[in-house]
Amino acid sequence: MSTKGLSLFAKRRLRVRTALRARGGTRPRLSIHRSGRHIYAQIIDDAQGRTLAAASTLEKDVRDTTGATIDAASSVGTRIAEAAKAAGVTQVVFDRGGFLFHGRVKALAAAAREAGLEF
């Protein structure tokens, strides 16, 4: 795929995902997306092309109490780890989606690790 015309962020996203596929093997991927208002996490099985578990700050039970904060990202990390355990997933590859491993992304990853997800 040609990267001509892509933004630096899009190039970084492709570079990160390509490296994960090379090293990840058969593990599902914990994919993160953050916006100015929310943060989202999915566990994706690339072999089957389907989402095994998902969590975000948009879920009905937490929508009014969360926002774009480190605390909200930590709660999403805990909830995605619980959903992964329910789906039978314990080991994943962390796909930061081109976002720097800092702030909310780092908080989500730390909370998921503490809740028992291995990556």
Query: What average pLDDT do the residues reach?
Result: 91
Query: What fraction strand?
Result: 15-25%
Q: Uncertain runs with pLDDT below 50, 5 residues or more?
A: none
Determine Rg (CA atoms, Å). 14 Å
- Give the N-terminus to C-terminus distance in angstroms: 28 Å
Order of helices and strands: HEEEHEH
Task: Walk me through what this model shows.
This protein is of the alpha+beta class. It is built from 3 helices and 4 strands; from the N terminus they run H-E-E-E-H-E-H. Helices cover 39% and strands 19% of the residues. Strand 2 and strand 3 form a beta hairpin. It is globular and about 40 Å long. The mean pLDDT is 91. This is one of the proteins that bind and probably mediate the attachment of the 5S RNA into the large ribosomal subunit, where it forms part of the central protuberance. Keywords: Ribonucleoprotein, Ribosomal protein, RNA-binding, rRNA-binding. Part of the 50S ribosomal subunit; part of the 5S rRNA/L5/L18/L25 subcomplex. Contacts the 5S and 23S rRNAs.
Features:
single chain, 4 strands, alpha+beta, four-stranded mixed sheet, 3 helices, globular
Provide a concise account of the structure shown:
With 119 residues, this protein is α+β, with helices and mostly antiparallel strands. It has three helices and four strands.
